[in-house]
Every structure is written in C-alpha cells, then in structure tokens.
Specification:
Blueprint lengths: L4 H11 L3 E5 L3 H14 L3 E6 L5 H15 L6 E8 L2 H9 L4 E4 L6 H15 L5 E6 L4 E2 L6 E2 L6 H11 L3 E4 L16 H10 L4 E3 L7 H9 L2 E6 L1 H17 L7 H23 L6
Parallel strand pairs: 1-2, 1-10, 2-3, 3-4, 4-5, 5-8, 8-9, 9-10
Antiparallel strand pairs: 6-7
Helix pairs in contact: 2-10, 4-5, 6-7, 9-10
Amino acid sequence: MLCTAKEILNDAREKRYAVPGFNSIADVMIRGILDRAERLRTPVFLMIYTGEIDDKTWWYYPTIIRAVAERYTIPIVMHLDHATELDDIRAALDNGFTSVMYDGSSLPFDQNVEITRKAVEIAQPYGASVEAELGLVGGFGLMETDNVANILTQPDEVVTFVERTGVDSLAVSIGTAHGVYQQLPKLDISLLVELNAASTVPLVLHGGSGTPDDQMRAAIENGICKFNVYTDIRIAMWDRFKQIVAKQKRDDPLPNDYISQLQEALGDVVEEKATLAGSVGQA
C-alpha cells in the first residue's frame, strides 16, 4: 500500500529503527524489491533518481508502482530522489509520487532554504512528504564523471533550516559518500547525536551502500531513520548477471530463468539492509 514518508519515518524515529530506501528503474527491480520486502514485513522506499528519468519514465515508473502497490500489505513510499528542479517536483507529484526530495545541498544556505520551502508549498496540496538535504554528501555521481567533497552538516543550521522550510525529513552529511567508496568512510557519530538533538524531523542518510555495518548500526541507534541504497544493488545484480552468462548453455534462454535470478540477487540485498535497519517485522 502506498503511503507518505512522514507516515512511516515518525514511527521509525520513535522506535529507533530505520527504513531502507532502494533506487530502481524498471519492473524487474520493482518486483524484486517489493516481493522480498513483503516477505520480510518491512516498510520500504521505492526511489528513482531524476538523472535516470526520461519522458516515458515519468509516467511509466509511477504507473507500475501505483498498479501493484495495492497488492502488497507493507507500507510503500514512492519517492523522487535528488530533484534539483521544481519542475521535476511538480511532474512527480502530478504522477502520484507520495514523497519527493529537493536537493539544494550545493546551494548557499539561504537559497537552499528558499527553494526547499517552495518545494514544500508545491507538495502540500498533494499531501506528499518532502525531504531536503543540508550539508553535502559527496562522492561520485551516477555517471562517475565528478567526485565531490563532503560538506558536513552543522547542528546550528538544522533548527533554522527545518523551521523555515517545513520539511518532513532531512538528509544530513556525516561522512558517507555516493557511489563506490575509494576508501572506507568513518562516520561522525558524535556530530549525528548533535544533529538529531537539534532536529524536530527524522534524519536521512544518503550513501548507504558500502558503509560498514557497525557504523550503520551506530548511525541508526543515534537518529538515522532512513538510508538510501543503490550501488550495492547494481553490484549484486551485475555480479549475478555475469554468473548467469558464464553458466548459460542455451542460445535462447527463457527470460524468466535469468530475470528471477537477478531479482533474487536484488532481494538478498533488500534482506541484508532491512535486517541491518531493524525494519524487519515493522510493517
């Protein structure tokens, strides 16, 4: 069943678990994520990155999710990830997204506040949740063309930012990075404690792939209520795909034979992250 981020993240914050968010792009991925999440009884975010959306994807992706969500009993948040244009926010909401992220993290503080507030105002008539980012989670972007340095979130800015924007959740920078890590991160948990104390809304962690489990557990115990996963999914599916090809003896393999294996590999990542999040059985 579809729901907003606000509906499930407030419960996660109260009970001190996190909800995993998984980026996806096609029906194969959507089903792989939802089938395993349903089995685990975990709430889940189905997310899509704006950089992977073309004209058809704007209606194709949400149409699939809206059609199948009612067949699942777990809470499902359909979330737009890393929108930097308000037109993308509007398009997502018009197509039924229940949650959107406006990413103004590369902007000066006041400009980030101003545009994030506009995103909130746009989302309110739809009843949708809005996530924003304060500080900057760096690393390699999806196309791996630029490597951006982290800018850690400052506790003294959190209160003002949340009050002035009215956001429902806040992505913070405490040492994770997007993409494949060049070296293992060291999360600043003491900073996270301060950020959580300053924030009246649930906190989100981007760059959840590849972060050591012990550091992720510490982050969840100290206020992270949602974390994002994409790189780990891509690696798992690609590794399984290479195994399938290496073992394949037919020139015309049945699609479901290899698609089901890709979904299994994806589902294993879902199970690993949901277990780490403490969200298993929380649906």
